[in-house]
Design goal:
The protein is of the alpha+beta class. Helix content is 26%, strand content 29%. The protein has one domain. It has 4 helices and 11 strands. The strands form 2 sheets. It has a 9-stranded antiparallel beta sheet, with helices on both faces. Strands 3-4 form a two-stranded antiparallel ribbon. Helix 1 packs antiparallel against helix 3. The two termini are 26 Å apart. The N terminus is likely disordered.
């Protein structure tokens, strides 16, 4: 269960997640190029399927894997990048869900939780999101929306940013 309250959480462990409007090359490119123009993948290669004992393929870099995941919308995968020369955040993340969803996230951000959500929401064109601490997002769109609705801290519900349970 994701920790969805962020009023007493140290800022260095906060993560902001937004369910993207769609799983597309345009959304991926906009998110990565706007939020993290200077980035380096945390991993050198990417076994596919992720966490498989017998991967059917190994991608050498995140870009070819992303192309594959956009073509095969029923596969899930988590990809992380470290950011360089970035005043916004220290890490960006993309989570491809098995139900065809895409979740964008940022970690170690230097702005308020509501500003972090707003920034990701605008780029990812998302309608739902929340801030948590060191907890990966749910693995489906439906579950992500439910966690967003239950979040006690900064969150996005139906395209509106809320802090606690008050709309901003």
């Amino acid at each position: 269960m994701a920790n969805t309250s962020n009023s007493q959480i140290p800022s260095n462990c906060l993560e902001a997640y937004v369910l993207c409007s769609d799983r597309s090359a345009e959304v991926v490119a906009a998110f990565l190029n706007v939020i993290a123009p200077k980035r380096k993948s945390v991993h050198l290669d990417f076994p596919f399927p992720q966490f498989s004992d017998a991967p059917t393929r190994v991608f050498e870099g995140a870009e070819p894997l992303i192309v594959h995941l956009l073509e095969q919308a029923d596969y899930e995968y988590s990809i992380y990048w470290d950011c360089f020369d970035n005043v916004l955040c220290g890490q960006v993340m993309l989570f491809f869900t098995a139900d065809g969803g895409l979740i964008a996230g940022i970690a170690n951000f230097s702005i308020s939780p509501t500003d972090a959500l707003s920034t990701v929401m605008q780029v990812a064109r998302g309608e739902f999101g929340y801030v948590t601490c060191d907890s990966p997002p749910p693995e489906s769109r439906e579950e992500f929306i439910e966690v967003s609705r239950r979040a006690e801290g900064a969150r996005i519900i139906d395209g509106r940013i809320e802090c606690g349970h008050e709309a901003l």
